[in-house]
Amino acid sequence: QPAILWLRRDLRRHDHPALLKAHEDAGSAGVLPLFVIDPVLWKSAGPARRGWLAATLKATNSAYADRLVIRLGDPSVVVPKVARELGAARVHVTRETTPYGARRDARIAAALNDAEVELVETGTPYAVGPGLISNGSGKPYKVFTPFSKAWREHGWPAPAQVDRVRWATADSDGRVDAMLDKAIREAPELPPAGEDAAMQRWHEFLEDIADYGDDRDRPDRDATSRLSPYLKYGVLHPRTLLAEAPKSKRADRYVTELAWREFYADVLHHNPKSAWHDLNPLGIPYDEPDETFEAWKDGRTGFPIVDAGMRQLNETGWMHNRVRMITASFLTKDLHVWWPHGARYFLDRLIDGDIASNNHGWQWVAGTGTDAAPYFRVFNPTTQGEKFDPQGEYVKRWIPELGTDEYPDPIVDHKAEREETLRRYEHRGH
Ligand code: FAD
Questions:
Q1: How many angstroms is it from 353 CA to the middle of ligand 1?
Q2: How confident is the model at residue 373 (pLDDT cuts 50, 70, 90)?
Q3: Of 123, 143, 165, which one is at a domain's C-terminal end?
Q4: Separation of 390 CA from ligand 1 center, angstroms?
Q5: Of the residues 215, 237, 270, which one is the last residue of a structural domain?
Q6: What is the reported pLDDT for 216?
Q7: Looking at the structure, do residues 42 and 25 belong to the same domain, yes or no?
Q8: Do the annotations mark residue 367 as ligand-binding?
Q9: Whether 66 and 28 share a structural domain
Q10: Could you give the dihedral angle defined by the CA atoms of residues 7, 107, 142 and 360, in that order, rounded to the nearest 10 degrees?
């Protein structure tokens, strides 16, 4: 019988355990690759990520010999319907562990089961599946360093290749083509989509990986891999990267960053509520977002490194990690706005927008998250700029009017707001 491969965050052709499993299952009856555009997720992404997903779907279709079937609608209706149309006995997926994805899949597994179709989960978007690493007493890790040590010791399987697959066919939804084209038109300029482009980027980065540890904090240098948008939709599997990263001390820093991605997915798996609620509430009051929040969003705070970051985000859908930390610190500690407001804005704009990495990154900066990120660590946007963008190249790139009358004065006094943050913290719970 034919099998369905329902693709979600695994839009690639190589190193794909669920594809391999579907292929072994269906054999000559063929595998039908299916993507469902879920209106809930589509609407929760801003124009940049919608464009990025659309471009990635087109590239995936080419990699799947133009056989990718794309349907529009609630997956709990669409997937069983396609299974019926095709007469499939099994729907293969990569296991999803985000709160929304896990709930959806449980619902769909039940619906399919009623129709005697099985949902088969193989692999995850991570080197080590969320939930698999635990400490000596069988509990999940709450702090990064011991997690990453256990994660490395756990190890991961080698990449799984499947060369020739026989495809089954079905029609895509007639509305899809126009929808994807529109999304691409409305997006800002995006990186080249697809697995080949991602691999090319990775191999270029490998040539410079030895400098990564020293330069990764410098937004003025193009020193990071910029693979996050590809990892977001599983265009590359982290296992592929881990298999190819050189085993040197210098390259090891890169492995550590991939471990952060895995850690946050694990934290979210164990604490689904931490997506939108404080993992460790501080018990302090926050201010409602007002016009200063709008200035932050638009990159008009009068603090160049903050404004450059927000403009890079608004114009390209990506922001350098160091600047994500600085802009998030500014919103939470200089403007005293609760982190979910900022996290939501980032998720809307980022092409790599990922609920686990984004929302826990925000919680880390806000001091409500994992690790002992002390609340009194308040980034000073001026000294951060001097340290990590010493010639001001990054800020000049994003703020052409810098140094002219057109550029706004600082909207707050950093020293006074820092003291205000510390005051709130000292009086927490009162
Ligand atoms: P590289 O430096 O080349 O790192 C390699 C890979 O490691 C990245 O692609 C990413 O998958 C992973 N990684 C690196 N740093 C982190 C980190 N701190 N946490 C988790 N994974 C990491 N990352 C996202 O993928 N999506 C998000 O929505 C996201 N939102 C963030 C929000 C805030 C407030 C902060 C502080 C960080 C956020 N990050 C997010 C993490 C990090 O900023 C990006 O992963 C990184 O900037 C992507 O660029 P890169 O691929 O060049 O990274």
A1: 9
A2: low
A3: 123
A4: 23
A5: 270
A6: 94
A7: yes
A8: no
A9: yes
A10: 60
Confidence of residue 163 (pLDDT cuts 50, 70, 90): confident
pLDDT interval class at 222 (50, 70, 90): confident
Domain that holds residue 76: 3-123
* 105 CB within 6 A, ligand 1: no
pLDDT at 199 (0 to 100): 98
Same domain, 239 and 334: no
Q: For residue 153, is pLDDT > 80? A: yes
Per the domain annotation, does 351 fall within a domain? yes
Residues 419 and 304 in one domain: yes
| Residue 378 and residue 248 share a domain | no
CA 232, 233, 235, 236 torsion-angle sign: positive
pLDDT level of residue 129 (50, 70, 90 thresholds): very high
With respect to residue 363, please indicate whether it lies within any of the assigned structural domains: yes
- The protein residue whose alpha carbon is closest to atom 42 in ligand 1 is 321
93 — pLDDT class (breaks 50, 70, 90): very high
151: CATH: 1.25.40.80
Q: Is 330 in the pocket of ligand 1 (CB under 6 A)?
A: no
